[in-house]
Amino acid sequence: MKIYITGIAGFLGSHLAKHLLQLGHQVGGNDNMLGGENDNLPENLYRFDLTDCIDYEEMNKNLYNVDIVYHCAATAHEGLSVFSPNFITKNIYQASVSVITSAIVNKVKRFVYCSSMARYGSQQTPFTEDMKPMPVDPYGIAKVAGEETLQVLAKLHGMEYNIAVPHNIVGPNQKYDDPYRNVVSIMINRNLQGQPSIIYGDGEQTRCFSYIDDVIYCLEKLALDPKIYSEIINVGPDESSCSINTLSSLVANSSGYNGKPIYVKDRPQEVKHATCSADKARQYLEYETKTTLEESIKKTVEYIRTRGTRPFKYNLPLEIINDKTPETWKKKLI
Fold it and tell me: Global pTM?
């Protein structure tokens, strides 16, 4: 199969590319390098395009003669989206429509769209796939809009699709110098520099975290299993959830940091509890949590320690700056 991955130099895209190459597929992809890293790119790609997904003309060329598309590229900044809605929406929805359209024009056989738990908003947990999406921020709204556009266009024009809803993926290759996202990597990067974790609100927000390897084989099936199509499937652990307070302690223990976290004002529109059911993933994808959270954190600590800590880069626009904008972002405190 000839497989094309958007965001191939990013966290999820790079792991997926390496896995598919090992299976013997031809793999290519694109990245605008806003969240990607050159050393994430695997060898033996049939092509790499330094292209933004928003560029429809270029994406149309990139997807020529492609069998399967994974749309992994995203400015996955849920919290930032209420303060930079124009930037985030453009890079989620407009980019998705460009890639979806290009795939249909090029007669791609199957499209795998990587969505987000943000689609569920503040509904009762655990989130299940039959719930009506109720996002509470522009990022989640844009992700759902991308899902719905894909479903309409794919059904009309005869392209198979699946929608994956991963749950807080962590592991090596994750960007750890971005102050706006990736809470585990932010905490590790700070702790390894002898700085405390920063926690918004009371720290009793609950999440589940997926190790990257436990997600990749599920994405493989969503593209390659001919019996699975037109599905929306959560991918992530549901055996137990973890509070941000507990997460901070686990990261500190693994990083060798002995200090206490700093608490700051709640982040606007942050969902308090976001955990999913993995029943459908177990049924369709043979999902299994093989890596514990403690092991996931340890592997991510090892990656960042080996690669070297970094200062945080505030290179994304803050469009709305007022009394609701987190001080950590306005004053670059992370």
Answer: 0.97
Q: What is the DSSP letter of 126?
A: S
Q: Which residue shows structure tokens 């009762």?
A: 124
Of the candidates 79, 81, 107, 111, the residue with the CA atom closest to the CA atom of residue 93? 81
Torsion sign (Cα): 290, 12, 142, 108: negative
Alpha carbons 156 and 302: distance in angstroms, whole number: 47
Cβ atoms of 125 and 134 within 8 Å: the answer is no
Q: Distance between CA 324 and CA 108 in Å, rounded?
A: 44
Same domain, 10 and 65: yes
Say which CATH number the domain at 190 has.
3.90.25.10
99-121: per-residue pLDDT in tens? 999 999 999 999 999 999 999 99
Where helices occur in the chain by DSSP H, the ranges are: 11-22, 56-62, 85-89, 95-105, 138-157, 183-191, 212-224, 244-255, 279-285, 293-307, 327-330
The whole-angstrom distance between residue 59's C-alpha and the CA centroid of its chain comes to 21
Q: Domain limits at 113?
A: 2-169+209-235
pLDDT in tens, 263-273: 999 999 999 99
Interatomic CA distance for residues 77 and 318, integer angstroms: 12
Query: In DSSP terms, which residues pair with 3 in a beta bridge?
Result: 27, 68
- Cα–Cα distance for residue pair 12/329, rounded to 1 Å: 25
pLDDT of residue 240: 86
At 265 the pLDDT is: 97
CA 233 – CA 222 distance, rounded (Å)? 9
The full DSSP string for 38-91 is GGGPPS--SEEE---TT-HHHHHHHTTT-SEEEE------TTGGGTSHHHHHII
Identify whether residues 145 and 31 lie together within a single domain.
Answer: yes
